[in-house]
Design a protein that fits this description.
Bound molecules: nicotinamide-adenine-dinucleotide
CATH topology of the largest domain: Dihydrodipicolinate Reductase, domain 2
Shape: globular
Oligomer: single chain
Strand content: 15-25%
Number of domains: 2
CATH architecture of the largest domain: 2-Layer Sandwich
Number of helices: 10
Radius of gyration: 20 Å
Strand order of the largest sheet: 14-13-12-11-7-10-9-8-15
Largest sheet: 9 strands, mixed
Structural class: alpha/beta
Helix content: 25-40%
CATH class of the largest domain: Alpha Beta
């Protein structure tokens, strides 16, 4: 079997996890890497002993090698630019989360995918977690009846990252894009994708801007909350923080006419973690049984420890080999990106905003 030829665009922190995953695959060969910072891609490849593999400062030169696929591991504001450039050259793309910063950027990516017919998948590795799959299965089973309200998000008591994550020019947004997008993805993935119509949001930066809690320049949000309305009447209550004087922003809740599901945040002892950051806490199902209000603890699969990051890179490679479908397609994630875009606009304008997904995307 011919080896799949993979390139990596952006060779910072998370590119290492991509590289480690690809290097575990017998049927994959790394053909090159690129980064706009001079020397960074070279140092990255050398770190993995790939001293003969070419490094570039211009992504186009990497794309000239016609790899079968690229991992886009750049910071958020350049995801769209890099993914569109690859798709336009007919190259399959695994793009890191969040899909982009704005809805316009995400729509450009979607159009480039449609035009090229290549695979575009967005790197939400919690999707591969067995407990996440279980929650989705329960929510989609109909056991809860009609679901009318979802609360999601999570938060850290102290957990502001550094580097490109806190620079608006590079990250675009802060905790919302870093860990908030996971909460949105897993809530939407559980209830099913549907059209958001309005967002009313608030964002603040009290901790990032206070030298008592964070040293250095800080130009993004460290706390965000939002109420999102969907075309079919569903309401999503979203909360996320990087830092706060509180233990948790609450559990993930699904309220239905026939039942409710509570997914507790993981690691309550550490006060750390989005509601959906790759693991979950205890899960409880609330139902009326013969007129009795019951609470059932659903065992989580503690014995199944999957390597979600590897699985997401493997799923990308398998999709290339099998010519699709995309494991996590833009047709799903565009809704999350529309919400993020709405949250950014609403929190800046300090009022509710409409969410309009471009009609030409054909959703
Ligand atoms: N899935 C996960 O678990 C996970 C974890 C961390 C980060 N991420 C995501 O990965 C992305 C990168 O995060 P990071 O921590 O690696 O950031 P980073 O700042 O360490 O690395 C980003 C790299 O991209 C390079 N870059 C930026 N624009 C470029 C361009 N146009 N062409 C080529 N290179 C370019 C930068 O020079 C930098 O080296 C972010 O979008 C982040 O949300 C995902």
């Amino acid at each position: 079997m011919d080896k799949l030829r993979i390139g990596i665009i952006g060779t910072g922190g998370i590119a290492h996890a991509h590289m480690r995953s690809y290097l575990r695959m017998d049927d994959v060969e790394i053909v090159g890497a690129s980064d706009i910072v001079p020397g960074k891609a070279r140092a990255f490849l050398d770190e993995f002993g790939l001293t003969q593999v070419p490094a570039f400062e211009d992504n186009e030169k990497l794309l000239d090698l016609k790899p079968d696929g690229v991992s886009v591991c750049t910071y958020n504001t350049t995801h769209s630019l890099c993914a569109v450039a690859a798709l336009k050259r007919g190259i399959n793309v695994l793009c890191e989360k969040p899909m982009s910063v704005t809805l316009d950027q995400a729509a450009d990516m979607a159009r480039a995918q449609k035009d090229s017919g290549r695979i575009l998948t967005i790197g939400f590795q919690p999707r591969y977690d067995e407990n996440m799959k279980m929650v989705k299965e329960i929510v989609r089973s109909g056991e809860l009846g009609h679901i009318y309200y979802v609360q999601t998000g999570g938060g850290r008591r102290r957990g502001i990252p550094s580097g490109s994550f806190v620079d608006k020019k590079l990250a675009g947004v802060g905790c919302l894009a870093d860990i908030g997008c996971y909460g949105l993805d897993m809530a939407m993935n559980s209830v099913g994708y549907r059209r958001p119509v309005t967002v009313s949001a608030y964002a603040s930066d009290y901790f990032g801007k206070n030298p008592k809690y964070f040293k250095g320049d800080f130009s993004v949000d460290d706390f965000t909350c939002a109420l999102v309305r969907f075309a079919d009447g569903l309401v999503l209550d979203f909360r996320m923080s990087w830092a706060m004087h509180m233990d948790t922003m609450g559990d993930t809740l699904f309220l239905g006419t026939e039942g409710g599901l509570k997914v507790k945040s993981p690691h309550p002892e550490l006060n750390w973690g989005g509601a959906w950051d790759g693991s979950i806490g205890d899960v409880y199902l609330y139902k009326d049984v013969c007129g009795n209000q019951t609470e059932t603890k659903i065992p989580i699969k503690t014995t199944v420890k999957s390597d979600n990051f590897y699985l997401k890179c493997r799923a990308f490679c398998d999709a290339i080999r099998e010519n699709g479908p995309s494991p996590i397609p833009w047709q799903e994630i565009i809704y999350n990106q529309a919400i993020i875009d709405g949250i950014i606009r609403s929190s800046e304008l300090k009022r509710e905003v409409d969410v309009v997904i471009p009609a030409d995307l054909g959703l």
